[in-house]
Design a protein that fits this description.
The chain is α/β, with parallel strands linked by helices. 44% of the residues lie in helices and 25% in strands. The strands form two sheets. Strands 3, 4, 5, 6, 7, 8, 9, 10 and 11 form a nine-stranded mixed β-sheet that branches.
């Protein structure tokens, strides 16, 4: 094991968490052959197989399970050491690992900009991924803080810091673009472009539809707000998205926001961490910054874009 590297252990932990070489490669931003090579070298150092494949599924062996526990202990000790160093350094140096759902990419970099200018020696890693993987990372305590809408309730601390609005979008020349007080029944025959199952936007929209006994005519499910906006602009259908995704497209007039009854839907964005987590001085500073200044900073940036 003296031949094993910390990088190999990090790769192993991600593969073990996902039970997938492909998803580990996606999370680590490396190729799948590189993941396979790191696991092969680590397996050679251990002297026993770490994974076994049954059909198309990957499982940890007994040696793999023991190594995963060891990795978790090592990473926890390293995290505690990093927090100690950060505490000793105050806010002069340190790391901030932040994971956000895909829609949050429209405002998270804006929030990070002033914070990084204020503390230029703090290194920030921003992970943007879908809700399912953010929750996986949250359950694995893989980051300092997480930003998402509609957070789960179990064993978490969730702080609302930014209000959001979901609006009904259509192409600029849609027949209802100039209409007022549109009812849901008027949208019954409209093709809808929806976010994928499991996304925070989809969960909120589905709940609204169920409460109003409305069954949308779903033409297509897409995995990103960008793809949906392009589909709406191209005339594939209408959709419901966060108004924060519209800064550029709405300004250039490609999209129309329909005046549908009971819209916009209101929600909050939350910054989240596990309930028992001890935040580093850097993570605590960023949390305080979001709660005290986040709304104003995003609002100012949006006014500049308008």
């Amino acid at each position: 094991m003296k031949q094993a590297t910390l990088h190999q252990l990090q790769v192993f932990e991600v593969v073990a968490r996902h039970n997938s070489f492909t998803r580990a490669a996606e999370e680590l931003f490396i190729s799948q052959p590189t993941v396979s090579m790191q696991i092969k070298q680590l397996t050679k150092a251990v002297g026993l197989p770490l994974f076994e494949q049954v059909g198309k599924r990957l499982f940890l062996t007994e040696a793999g399970r023991e190594l995963l526990l060891t990795c978790q202990e090592i990473f926890e000790r390293l995290n505690r050491f990093e927090m100690t160093v950060a505490d000793l350094s105050g806010l002069k140096k340190g790391h901030l690992n932040l994971a956000v759902v895909t829609t949050a990419k429209y405002f998270a970099p804006r929030l990070l900009g002033p914070f990084c200018q204020r503390y230029p020696d703090i290194e920030v890693a921003l992970k943007v991924t879908n809700r399912e993987r953010v929750l996986e990372r949250l359950n694995a305590n893989a980051d300092d803080l997480y930003i998402l809408g509609n957070p789960p309730t179990q064993d978490l601390r969730a702080y609302p810091f930014l209000e959001d609005s979901l609006v009904v979008l259509a192409p600029r020349h849609h027949s209802l673009a100039q209409a007022k007080h549109i009812t849901l029944s008027q949208l019954a025959n409209e093709p809808f472009l929806m976010r994928e199952l499991g996304s925070g936007t989809r969960l909120l929209v589905q709940k609204f539809f169920e409460e109003h006994n409305f069954i949308p005519k779903v033409k297509m499910e897409l995995g990103s707000s960008e793809a949906i906006k392009q589909g709406v602009i191209g005339g594939l259908g209408i959709s419901i998205l966060s108004q924060r995704t519209l800064a550029l497209e709405h300004a250039t007039g490609h999209l129309a926001i329909l005046d549908v009854d009971e819209f916009p839907l209101r929600r909050f964005w939350y910054v989240v961490h596990p309930a028992g987590k001890r935040l580093s001085v850097v993570a605590r500073a960023f949390l305080d910054y979001l709660l005290s200044e986040g709304k104003e900073i995003v609002g100012e940036m949006e006014r500049l874009l308008d």
